[in-house]
Amino acid sequence: MISVKEAKDLISQHISPLNPISIDLAKAAGHTLAVDIYAQFNIPAFRQSSMDGYALKFEDQEKELRIIGEMAAGTTQNITIQNGETGRIFTGAPLPNGADTVVMQEKITRSDDKITLQDPNLKFGLNVRDKGSEIKAGALAMEKGSLLSPAAIGFLAGIGINEVSIYPMPMVSIIVTGKELQEPGKPLAFGQVYESNSYSLAAALKHEGISQISIYEADDDLEILKKVLQTALESSDLVLLTGGVSVGDYDFVIEAAAHCNIKQVFHKVKQKPGKPLFFGTRGQKLVFGLPGNPSSVLSCYYNYVLPSLKILSQKNNSVTEVAAELTHPYSKPPGLTHFLKGKYENGKVTPLNAQESYRLSSFAQANCLICLNETQAHFEKGDILTVMILPN
Ligand SMILES: Nc1nc2c(c(=O)[nH]1)N[C@H]1C(S)=C(S)[C@@H](COP(=O)(O)OP(=O)(O)OC[C@H]3O[C@@H](n4cnc5c(N)ncnc54)[C@H](O)[C@@H]3O)O[C@H]1N2
Ligand code: MOO
């Protein structure tokens, strides 16, 4: 059995980013940019006013100025002003030729086609957005690796970009195994349990912006599982199986994976929950066999699957690790790393009740996983521990 660290290292050694694709800017939000983007144009493309007012030559500010025309936003024809002249102008409109400054309309007195200024704070170039002042043609607009946030999308649209090269999100298949599984909402017969792993996993994946998720059910039947796994592999970058990775007579994941030419990277990790975790690859495709207990599934998701998504999509999604002070003593046998469901607040962390891996009630209340190292058995109140803050 390998350690948690060895498992994490092995996973990262076997994953590379998905091949970038070009998509419409409008669909790119939440992705990571796969190339540097350079501005093609000066933005603004022309000198424009940032206020409703009057455009003038600054040197004329003391004079009475005659209005010789108007520039509205969107106008395609320019006017030219001479000394002693002004142009009525609106926010976003091009500056008339010859003008260098805009006075706000609140700061003038107008009579017929004449204005006089009362603006002691007027400066040369005031209320003018210079050509290229947002970005100059040829300048680096956004670096490869940047997150396409709403603001980034707006910025790129504003400099005329309509298509971007991004790292795609993986296409994911979830395969839940187990003859005992029943759909929530249906009556529960003797021996059945409600199927919850596909729900928690799909919710976690959607939280990361993954939308292409296929869910399959496979009975505890090797032939069915082989077929389902083969189908899932054909249409996915990442396959998450739950259940069937332990040593029971009906645990077929390892055998089905071998049959589907999945190269085993590891099986079993010195951890609780999630000891029988399996990880394998087929070419660029990744396969996780998550131990079926609902809490093991999620604990392994946050520890191994989420960091893998980060590499595939180049999106910074990882759980944050912080150091926190333990509020109560806690003991465990040495030999396995334990991940406890906990509550983190103001630098302190408290393990919750109901840590068993078949239970999710504590996980549903938790905001973190507390990492208890493999070799240590006793943890005292006040000990400083590593805590993984979970995404909401
Ligand atoms: N003799 C041993 N028995 C077990 C060992 C072991 O080392 N020796 N390991 C235990 C540990 S730890 C875990 S974790 C489980 C993992 O077993 P599997 O991955 O084979 O999972 P299953 O047996 O199929 O299911 C475990 C448990 O989870 C429930 N389950 C499964 N799928 C779902 C689902 N989609 N939704 C809700 N609940 C699910 C299932 O009914 C079982 O109760 O093995 C231990 N045994
Ligand atoms: O490792 Mo299992 O996940 O303890 O129940």
Automatic annotation (TrEMBL):
Judged by the first EC level, this protein's enzyme class is transferase
Question: Is this entry keyworded Phosphoprotein?
Answer: no
Which terms are listed as keywords in the entry? Magnesium, Metal-binding, Molybdenum, Molybdenum cofactor biosynthesis, Transferase
What cofactor does this one take? Answer: Mg(2+)
Q: Which SMART domains match?
A: MoCF_biosynth
UniProt xrefs under Pfam families: MoCF_biosynth, MoeA_C, MoeA_N
In which pathway is this protein known to take part? Cofactor biosynthesis; molybdopterin biosynthesis
Q: What is this protein called?
A: Molybdopterin molybdenumtransferase
- Source organism: Pedobacter jeongneungensis
